[in-house]
Amino acid sequence: MSDCLFCKIVAGDIPSTKVYEDGNVYAFRDINPQAPTHILVVPKTHVASLDDVTAENSALAARCLEAIPKIAAAEGLANGYRVISNVGDDAGQTVRHLHFHILGGRPMGERLV
Ligand code: AMP
Ligand code: ZN
Q1: What is the predicted pLDDT for the residue at 34?
Q2: Which residues in the chain show pLDDT less than 70?
Q3: Whose CA is nearest to atom 1 of ligand 1?
Q4: Which atom of ligand 1 is nearest to the CA of 34?
């Protein structure tokens, strides 16, 4: 999608700090980190959110999930981490390209939100 921020980041048209890449997945540091480690994991192919995952495209999400433990290990998050994917307005999704936040590097607290 030509007007999608994360598609532009995947394409290299907007700079990012890459932490992982394979044929299907790109991961980069969040520009406004909410924890010592805050990484965004996105499929290279545009999917708007988890609300748009179907039997036809769920492999794109699966490739992201497979990348997450590799990234966490490389980042030294052996003590644990949190994964969040915001969906739509009530969740505060600001970028409409499926992404998983990896948050870690400190205890994330008992409260989910
Ligand atoms: P969400 O609110 O779940 O849609 O998350 C979007 C995330 O993208 C936020 O945590 C932003 O800080 C992050 N973000 C926005 N623009 C950029 C950018 N150019 N590079 C890295 N992260 C970004
Ligand atoms: Zn996109």
Answers
A1: 97
A2: none
A3: 93
A4: 10
16: CB partners within 8 A, 6+ apart: 9, 28, 29
Atom number in ligand 1 closest to CA 32: 12
**Which residues neighbour 21 within 8 Å (Cβ) at sequence distance 6 or greater?**
27
DSSP notation for the chain: -TT-HHHHHHHTSS---EEEE-SSEEEEE-SS-SSSEEEEEEESS----GGG--TTTHHHHHHHHHHHHHHHHHTT-TT-EEEE---HHHHT--S-S--EEEEESS---S---
Return phi, psi of residue 42, to 5°: -130, 150
Query: To test ligand 1's pocket by mutation, which of 17, 40, 52, 98 has the most ligand atoms within 8 angstroms of CB?
Result: 40
pLDDT value of residue 52: 98
pLDDT tens digits for range 84-112:
999 999 999 999 999 999 999 999 999 99
